[in-house]
Amino acid sequence: MTDFVRWVADDFGVELADLKPVDHGADVAAEVWQASTPTGEQYAVKWSGGGTDVAPKVTAFLADSGVQGIPGPVRTRTGELWSVRDGKRLSLAPWITGDRAADTGLTTDQWTSYGALLAEVHAIEPPAVLAAAMSRLNPINARMPALTKSLGERFSAGVPQDALEAEVAATWLEHQQTIARVVELTQEFARRDLGGTPVICHADPHLGNVLVAPEQLHLIDWDDVVLAPVEQDLLFMLGGMRSLGPTTQAEEDAFFKGYGPVTLDHTRLTYYRAARALEDIALWAQQAVTGPDRETCLHILRGNLGPDSLTARALGQADSGVT
User: Fold this and answer.
1) Strand partners, 19
2) What one-character-per-residue DSSP string does 127-173 give?
3) Aminoglycoside phosphotransferase domain location, by residue (predicted)?
């Protein structure tokens, strides 16, 4: 903790009096702290080895463009958007006092406000330099087939480290044909030109990344931001995310009332759903083996392979052609 206090003072010129770890989120590559100064200002301190360094560039651009609800980074003493400490990015942003929408849910009006916020993000064209720096594919997606293969080999070997891993292996092997089909689907679509107009996409805009403040919703954690068609983000609003997305037709309708009319492409939506489903399967299975929170991870893994999961929707859509 003392290192973070010193780093923030040296790099950002901000004196911290207190640091509290923030445990929310599935990103084991990042540490997030709620920090306060002796005079009462509060900041979010993030030390991350995940994602790409384009995230603070995008949030700075959106905040500077006047998008309410996107907290921009605090610049370093030298005007940079982050510093580097022990090989990881250290960033500072204003602390948003509010509840996680994943915990509280959203009212009908808040769903509409969230739709309007995401529509505003999608409507802003990034400058050419920023667009050139942005990935067209979530970097996580590229390593999922290899991780899935490695996990499948481990679970098939039949030598679990303990009883919990044995449960993880049993769950995986029970659904191995489904998992193989998702891998096949993502690889099949990845070879195609999916077309579509690329826009700034958060790529992980579920309710775990939405903060509800008294006057404004805030979309946080932009580590996976990409330049992609809108289906990359809107898949989260079309079912399969359980309480992390709309759970009723009324909530979905409220979101799209704010977002506005949109024509979704069947092929792109199927691909992005499948890619996200594979990510959720592989990463939660891996964390169920390595920790932390192994039992919770196993529970989530089972949900991700259930009948109302994103996995089921992706495969059902691929087989039926229905959005």
Assistant:
1) 35
2) PHHHHHHS-SS-HHHHHHHHHHHHHHHHHHHT--SSHHHHHHHHHHH
3) 58-264
Q: Tokens 């590559």 — which residue?
A: 29
- Structure tokens of 288? 């169920």
Enumerate the β-bridge partners of residue 97.
none
Phi/psi at 15 (nearest 5 deg)?
-85, 125
User: How high is the mean pLDDT of the chain?
Assistant: 92
Q: Give the separation between CA 268 and CA 314, rounded to whole angstroms.
A: 11
Give the separation between CA 72 and CA 57, rounded to whole angstroms: 9
| 0.70 surpassed by pTM | yes
Q: What is the predicted pLDDT for the residue at 127?
A: 97
CA-angle at 143, arms to 223 and 307, nearest 5°:
85
Residue type, 43: Y
Domain covering 100-323 assigned CATH 1.20.1260.10 in the classification: no
